[in-house]
Amino acid sequence: MKQKISIFWFRRDLRIEDNHGLYEALKGEFPVLPIFIFDPNILLKLNSTQDARVEFILSALHAIQKRLLEQGSSLKVIHASPREAYEQLAGQYDIQAIYCNHDYEKYAGIRDGSIQSWANQRGIGFSTYKDQVIFEKNEVLSGQNTPYTVFTPYSRKWKERLAQHAIQVYPSETLQNYVKFTEELPSLGSLGFANTGLLFPGNSVSMEIIQGYQANRDFPAKGATSRLSVHLRFGTVSIRSLVKQAIGVSETWLNELIWRDFYFNILFHFPHVSDGHAFRKEYDRMEWRNNEVEFKAWCEGQTGYPIVDAGMRELNSTGFMHNRVRMIVASFLVKHLLIDWRWGESYFAEKLLDFDLAANNGGWQWAAGCGCDAAPYFRVFNPTLQTQKFDKELAYIRKWVPEFQELSYPQPIVNHEFARERVLVAYKKALGR
């Protein structure tokens, strides 16, 4: 007879500690088989076989595997579509229940619906839990029971709710109800990918960084940010633990974590934003120049604006870009070059190690003035003034654009004042103003 088991399906929650769905699974009647599925539907959409995100995931799976081996268990990793993976598992085990954590993106919803339907047809339980955010879906609504579309009132209500509800902890690391077996994890090569050589940041943040966050966060040369975004993206750190760290220490750092919940909230309530549409639909009427030569120069860090070029070169080299610089380069692409924000969104999606659909889409729509923002299209960042304010000593620029004072460095691709006037005219025309 096949062994009766429950399955815990790791996705965006790649940790043993404080994992809500894993905790519920381990409390159940049946031993838990922990699985991860490398889904070809996702992998085949990646533009390169050297994608550091696959490498990061595999390293996180090895960390989980190490913990499981200590308990006489193992992680089962399957390279197949989710439906094929579950058919395979059903041939080996008598599956009683499937546990996982919520995933809010469109494809994830379709995928989970398909597996839930598969499970229901076989009398298998399917349970999913909130884990990657503090508040989700309809948990933070206005007094009129409508979703917030501006961050400040959302964050105010978010903090009110937090004060009323203690942060729940799910000590999944203390439970040991696992299926006993041992299996090796696949290699990067067997998945069709190659090593990138990128170094990944650690999954903890010092109290010194948090305490100095408000004063130092906007200066890219200082290295004064947590670098935890990739860990939040793949769930190798618990959002609950980070909020606990922030409370009473740094309101500014806490607000950054709330922004993350806010963009998930927007994605849930306004799904058209993930289908290539502006949050404010009237902005879909914009006429973009979309000059491919200028877009290539932006991608390669050859615009003649050192702060913009530094950011793009940092991104291309490391898969990371400082948040202040992300705003500068995004504003430059949209406002100076009049290139569709979706081109930039797509490029970031390809390059960012911490790529997250909700945050990436929200950030680009913010930059384009078509998203959730009280100050819409008329904000145009001046790269020169941004440099004077946030890289006055040019340390960040010298690191990434060492030739910026040499004759070989390109002249500015466009004049700032000219570009500013041009984009304002274009926006006014599109919006009928």
From TrEMBL:
It is an enzyme of class 4 (lyase). Residues 4-134 form the Photolyase/cryptochrome alpha/beta domain. GO terms for molecular function: deoxyribodipyrimidine photo-lyase activity. Its EC number is 4.1.99.3. Keywords: Chromophore, FAD, Flavoprotein, Lyase. Its cofactor is FAD; (6R)-5,10-methylene-5,6,7,8-tetrahydrofolate. It comes from the Bacteria. This is Deoxyribodipyrimidine photo-lyase. Belongs to the DNA photolyase family. InterPro entries: Crypto/Photolyase_FAD-like_sf (IPR036134), Crypto/Photolyase_N_sf (IPR036155), Cryptochr/Photolyase_FAD-bd (IPR005101), Cryptochrome/DNA_photolyase_1 (IPR002081), DNA_photolyase_1_CS_C (IPR018394), DNA_photolyase_N (IPR006050), Rossmann-like_a/b/a_fold (IPR014729).
